[in-house]
């Protein structure tokens, strides 16, 4: 490692963008690593003008890759959220969008060998301890990013990256419903506190005087709304076994409404302070799961698909996620299709 230049792959993963590093190219000491990542991204600064971050939480993300420490995985993936305007780096959440780039990046960096036209990459998601399976297109012995799969929020078509997950219920909160309740009332608002891969709080948009169709800009410009949502988040953190979440990027806050475009449920999400331009992968899986919890606000608003494939509506289209639940309410599996693209490979120079 040299601070003159740190080896870095800059990739789009789903609807996010991030810097992918080999763990060996970063300091092993966490504080030194986080300090370096802040300087690489240009944080704290709302414009991240002196770094490579895109001045948005969705483009200020990091994946740290290493050979897997587990027999049931090929690569270890640690996700780190680099806050834009605070000197904070958090590993207290995973990220299913950045996950889409992990298989390609692991192959590009020689951590995983190509195995035919399509290569299975088993990814140990270090943040939650769970395993994801990614199928990567590898014709002719190398990663192909070209293909015909379109995802909402990304222009054009690319190679599909199917992702499947097992055992993600309670990923960070210990249980699917950490309070044991379908509904908790916080500050007078009915909320489902739930974690099927991402700690989320799911509430009716109408309980905030909203239709649920508002734009990202409108919601971010509504200071009173943001204050109310944040007050609920801070109270819910300890209830979800997450402790004090003042400086954490979870739980994510969802305002849901009835679907408007033929999907299963309509969403707007605070992640947790900015509003998502689309929706997170594990977050969408978690909200889809909330629609299956009897008596929850989401269940009453949702239109259930017949085949477990949920079209989760969001500000820039829909994301399809798959949720397989047993009759007893246990989650058997979940999945999603993303795309990813290598944007840049080289050395990044921290300030
Ligand atoms: O929920 C943003 C993203 C995410 C998270 C965020 C994600 C997920 O879209 O799996 O992908 O919620 O901070 O990158």
From TrEMBL:
Aminoacyl-tRNA synthetase in keyword set: no
Domain of life: Bacteria
GO molecular function, one term: isomerase activity
EC number, as in UniProt: 5.3.2.8
One Pfam family from the record: PrpF
Entry keyword DNA damage: no
InterPro entries recorded: OMA_tautomer-like (IPR047687), PrpF-like (IPR007400)
Entry keywords, A to Z: Isomerase
Stated family: Belongs to the PrpF family.
NCBIfam families: OMA_tautomer
Alphabetical list of PANTHER family matching this protein: ACONITATE ISOMERASE-RELATED, ISOMERASE YBHH-RELATED
The protein, known as: 4-oxalomesaconate tautomerase
Organism this protein belongs to: Rhizobium halophytocola
């Amino acid at each position: 490692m040299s601070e003159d230049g740190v080896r870095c792959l800059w990739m789009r993963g789903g609807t996010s963008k991030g810097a992918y590093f080999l763990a060996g190219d970063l300091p092993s000491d966490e504080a030194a690593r986080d300090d370096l990542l802040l300087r690489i991204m240009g944080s704290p600064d709302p414009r991240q003008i002196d770094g490579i971050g895109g001045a948005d939480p969705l483009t200020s993300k990091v994946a740290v890759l290493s050979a897997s420490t587990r027999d049931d995985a090929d690569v270890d993936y640690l996700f780190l959220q680099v806050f834009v305007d605070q000197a904070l780096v958090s590993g207290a959440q995973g990220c299913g969008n950045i996950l889409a780039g992990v298989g390609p990046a692991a192959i590009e960096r020689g951590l995983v060998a190509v195995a035919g036209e399509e290569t299975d990459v088993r990814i140990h998601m270090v943040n939650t301890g769970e395993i994801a399976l990614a199928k990567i297109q590898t014709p002719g012995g190398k990663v192909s990013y070209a293909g015909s799969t379109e995802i909402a929020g990304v222009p054009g078509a690319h190679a599909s990256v199917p992702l499947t997950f097992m055992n993600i219920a309670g990923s960070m909160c210990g249980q699917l419903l950490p309070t044991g309740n379908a509904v908790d009332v916080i500050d007078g608002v009915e909320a489902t506190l739930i974690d099927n891969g991402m700690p989320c709080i799911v509430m009716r948009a109408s309980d905030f005087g909203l239709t649920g169709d508002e734009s990202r800009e409108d919601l971010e410009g509504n200071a009173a709304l943001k204050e109310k949502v944040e007050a609920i988040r801070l109270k819910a953190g300890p209830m979800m076994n997450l402790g004090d979440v003042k400086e954490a990027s979870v739980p994510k806050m969802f305002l849901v409404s009835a679907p408007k475009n033929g999907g299963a449920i309509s969403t707007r999400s605070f992640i947790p302070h900015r509003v998502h331009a689309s929706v997170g992968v594990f977050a969408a899986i978690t909200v889809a799961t909330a629609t299956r919890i009897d008596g929850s606000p989401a269940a009453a608003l949702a239109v259930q698909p017949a085949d477990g494939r949920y079209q989760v509506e969001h500000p820039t289209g829909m994301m399809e996620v798959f949720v397989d639940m047993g009759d007893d309410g246990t989650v058997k599996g979940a999945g999603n299709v993303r795309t990813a693209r290598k944007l840049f490979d080289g050395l990044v120079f921290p300030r």
